[in-house]
Amino acid sequence: MSLSVVLRHTAILSLVTLLSCAQLALAQIQPNDSHRQAALEVAESLRYGHYAETALDDTWSRLAFERYLDILDGQRAFLLESDIDEFRHFEERIDDMLFEGDLAPAFELYQRYHDRAESRFEWLLSAIDEGLGFTYESDMRLDLDRREADWATSEAELDELWYKRLKNAALTLDISGQDEEQVENNLRQRYEGQLSRLRQTNGEDVFGLFMAAVTSSIDPHTEYLSPRQGESFDIQMRLSLEGIGAMLQSDGEYVKVTSLVPGGPADRAGVLEPADRIVGVGQEDEEIVNVVGMRLDEVVDLIRGPKGTVVRLEVVPAEAVDMTRSSTVEITRDTVDLEDQAAKGEIVEVEREDGNKRIGVITIPTFYVDFDAWQSGAEEFRSTTRDVAREVERLKSEGIDGLVLDLRNNGGGALQEANSLLGLFIDRGPTVQVRDARGRINLYGDTETGTLYDGPLAVLVNRLSASASEILAGAIQDYGRGLVLGSATFGKGTVQTLNDLSHGQIKLTRAKFYRISGESTQHRGVEPDILFPDLVDPERIGESSLDNALEWDTVQAVQYRHYGEPWEYLETLRSRHRERADSHPNFIFLKERTELARRMREEQTTVSLDREQRQREVEARDAEQLALENRRREALGLDPLNELIDARGEENEEEPVERVQVTEAAAILADYAELTQRRLAGRF
């Protein structure tokens, strides 16, 4: 029997299965009274407690309905247009459903998706059991992203899509060196796993999916947590971070790395980067389990484990444009020790004609404080401010001409530490404004007089600098206290609280951060005075990349003094920076690699299902990346590479590529110190 006949045959069988099982499955997955009460409490929280003025009306209901469809079937691969039309009767009723406790329509829509997906996985498994026999010689191409695609109008249309998907999955494994039997066994295991997980879905799961649509239609940080999820969240907040130290989020069918915990196992290993996708998880020497299509909490459960054990991850690098570029990495689970996150200082020498300038650099991975010791009134306790103060004193004693605070990859932490840390560099004054849902604004800042360091200052940031990091960088910029260098920050300018419900919890956005200038850090982040290229794609990572993120806006500025006028020197500083950056191999590499990655993603919207064509496309991309890397190596006097290899985690260079951002920040600050000294001497 030919494959096309098998596919048609199994499609017919799946429809029969769908019709015969629907009533039985529907009776098994139903909302209960605790779900109905929790839905009402979530709706009340959104209406009366959320920062944004949230009107739960027909317009909002349409947004929530579309969001629910995206959560259920974001790639438009299971449901038909006729299915969607059949359930549009509650498209403008979600607000009423929540307040009335009528969750049945949402559960019924899930059930339709469930039945379609169950039939489709059975269809795939039947095709595999018949033997695939792909030849990989065709002009077919598969769309990589169908989020904006129209819903299929027939089963035949979905059959064609899934035929391509199945062939692509097989081709990906074939290219990795697996024979036909291995390919079929791996695909069978993948789809059996997805089918098994689907069949284990219960009412709690469905309610969670629907609540995810309801809350995320307001903003991406407002979230319903089931009792199980709430317990997991409490454990993460209460205990030491144990696992691999990576923040993950769902990205369609995949789980994506959003950031690494500074000093954590993944950070130390150097084998994961933001926007990497995890497609498989294995324990020690066990087989790797495919996690494509698996729920985020299930993937997290697989990755989490006891300290000292090894987890194996199959990872597709962020820069890869198709899924054939996966590699397996190993990370030893561990706790994150405070010492690994402590601020650390060094001195960078900047060559100048009149003698080397010594620029202090303090790396601040996070804003931390020993809350227990602090609250108990202990005189000695660890905190970011205390550790930075110690490093400042040490660097001053060694003689420095300027100081750089390196906040790259610092995702925030204790707000009080951003306030007190600013106080080391300014006399007392406000740091940030916090506006609540009622429009009331509270000022937070440093209340102690005096400064520890009043010399030339710069803050180095990147796309992963978030929350408290953005508050500190924005305040330094607004006060004119120093320069902000690097790339635009994350843009996380909202505050969440965790509230108990009768069933589960809700993480609710309750307030918003504003700079002392009145500008929000939300969505836009902090724009540096001098921009550096960044390998993190802002379209993939950052607040502006998240659906329904709250917008940037302003409030009234507060009164504050200027400690300097760095903006008057920016034209000269930028000119000098460009001269150095345009000739530095690592800066050239960062800029060109960023542009190449963006161009590849824009051009590569489909993949070929012809093996030779696919190989040519992959080889062409690899050749471009290899040429770029070898141009850099040649300029640095390093031996060229014969092939493109993933050198993550390998200490094969004395100075990593992104180290140039630190040395250039030091050079810019040395220029700034020189220019300000000239002005003071009347020679500007």
UniProtKB/TrEMBL annotation:
Residues 1-27 form the signal peptide. It holds the Pfam family Peptidase_S41. The keyword Cytoplasm does not apply. PROSITE patterns: PDZ. InterPro entries: ClpP/crotonase-like_dom_sf (IPR029045), PDZ (IPR001478), PDZ_sf (IPR036034), Peptidase_S41A (IPR004447), Tail-specific_protease (IPR005151), Tail_Prtase_C (IPR020992), TSP_N (IPR040573). The keyword Lyase does not apply. It comes from the Bacteria. Residues 601-620 are annotated as: Disordered. Keywords: Hydrolase, Protease, Serine protease, Signal. Residues 234-310 form the PDZ domain. Belongs to the peptidase S41A family. This is Carboxy terminal-processing peptidase. It comes from Billgrantia aerodenitrificans.
